[in-house]
Amino acid sequence: MQELIQYIDDAWASQLPFVAYHVPGAREVTCFFPEDSELRHLQAYDEAGFIFSPFETSSQPLVFPEAVSEVLKFELIDPELEPQSNFRINEKPGEKENYLKLVSNAIDQIRAGEVRKIVTSRKISAEYELKNPAELLLKLIYFYPEAFTYVWFHPEVGLWAGASPEILAKTYRTQFKTMALAGTKRVEEGRTWTEKELDEQQIVTDEIVKALNKHGENLDISERQTDKAGELLHLRTDITATLKSSKLGDVLRELHPTPAVCGLPKDKAYQFLNKHEGYDRQFYTGFFGELNMPQHNQRSTRTRNQENQAYKSVVRASSLYVNLRCVSYAAEKINIYVGGGITKDSIPKEEWTETVNKSRTMLKVL
Ligand SMILES: C=C(O[C@@H]1C=C(C(=O)O)C=C[C@H]1O)C(=O)O
C-alpha cells in the first residue's frame, strides 16, 4: 500500500499521467502509468488499455494504452484513514433557481410530447487544494467498496475521480453484461418506489433491451431490484446477452449515452441538454474502464503439477462504467457533477434535493 501511495505521489508531484482504480470485489488496486505525456485517443475498440470517454459522442475516448504503460497491481490492505471530511460547498446565488428553471423547462418539453425523459445535471464548484490523490482514492475505496472507484490524471485534462455504481459494459468472450440503473432515494427515507421512479427506470431497461437485440442474442433480463450506492438507493435491472458478430465499439455506439444519463429519445434529449444545460459535462456521464485487459484464469484448480500450466489461459475482458458521482479538479478548483432523470411527473424542488443528495457521495471524501 505504501508503495502504491508512493507511486501516485510521485506521478502527481511530477504532473505525469496516471490512473489508479479499484473494481468492485477486487483485492487489489490497479494502476496505469503511461511512459510519456502524449494525449492519446482510442483508434479502435480492439485496442487494450484504460479508456476515458466524454459524454459527448463525437470525440473518441482517451486511452492509456497497455502497450505504452506500466501496469501495476497493489494488494489492497485496509488503510488508516482520516475521519470523513466536513468539507462543504456553499450554494451560490442563483444556483438553485437556475436548476429549478432547467428542470421546469425539461418538464415543459416532456409535457409537450416531444421527449419522454431528460436527464438534467449541474456542476457544483469551489476553490480547493487537492494535496493527495492517493488518499482520495483510498477513501473512495473504503467508503464505496461496491462501486468502481478511480483517480485519473492527465496534465492536459486535469484530474478526475469518482465512485460509479453503474456498469455500462462488461464483456467476457462473447458474453455481454450491462444494467439499467435509475430512480434515486436516500436509504433513510424508508419509502416504497414511486410510479415516476419505476417509469424512469423502465425507460432505461426498454431502450437497452432494444439496443442489445440488434447486436446480441439470448438476452436475459433480471428482476428489478434495489441497489445500494453509498447512502443512496437505485432501481436496477441487469441485462446480459451473447454478442453475435458485433464488435464492442458498435454496441457502445448504440448504448451510450443511455436514457439513464441522457434521455429518450436520445437525439431530442441530447439537443435539449446542449442548448439548455449551460455547461460542458466533459467526462461526467461519459464512461471509463478497462478495455481488453488480460484476465488470468485457471480452468483447473485441482491439478497441482506442472501440467497445470496448460490449463491456464489468458482471456481479455472489458469492464466499463458510467462516470457518475465524480469530480474534476484543475487549477485549485474542484467541480462535483450531479444530475437526475426528469419525466412528466417530476417535481423541480425534489429534483434539486436529489442532486444535493448525490453530491454528498463525493463531498464525504474531499
Ligand atoms: C445522473 C446521475 O445518476 C443517474 C440518474 C439516476 C436518477 O435519475 O435517479 C440514477 C442513477 C444514474 O443512472 C448522477 O448521479 O449524476
Features:
366 residues, alpha+beta, Anthranilate synthase, 9-stranded antiparallel beta sheet, 27% helix, 37% strand
Overview of this structure, please?
- The longest helix is centred in the middle third of the chain and has 21 residues, at 195-215.
- The protein has helices at residues 2-13, 95-111, 133-143, 195-215, 248-255, 266-276, 308-311, 348-363, and strands at 18-22, 28-34, 49-53, 62-65, 69-75, 117-127, 148-154, 158-164, 167-172, 175-186, 216-221, 225-229, 232-243, 263-264, 287-298, 312-322, 326-330, 333-342.
- The strands form two sheets. The chain has a nine-stranded antiparallel beta sheet, sandwiched between helices.
- With 366 residues, it is of the alpha+beta class.
- It is globular and about 55 Å long.
- Helix 2 packs across helix 8 and helix 4 (195-215) packs antiparallel against helix 5.
- 27% of the residues lie in helices and 37% in strands.
- The relative contact order is 0.20.
- It has one domain: Anthranilate synthase, CATH 3.60.120.
- The site of the ligand C=C(O[C@@H]1C=C(C(=O)O)C=C[C@H]1O)C(=O)O has 17 residues, from strand 6, strand 10 and strand 18.
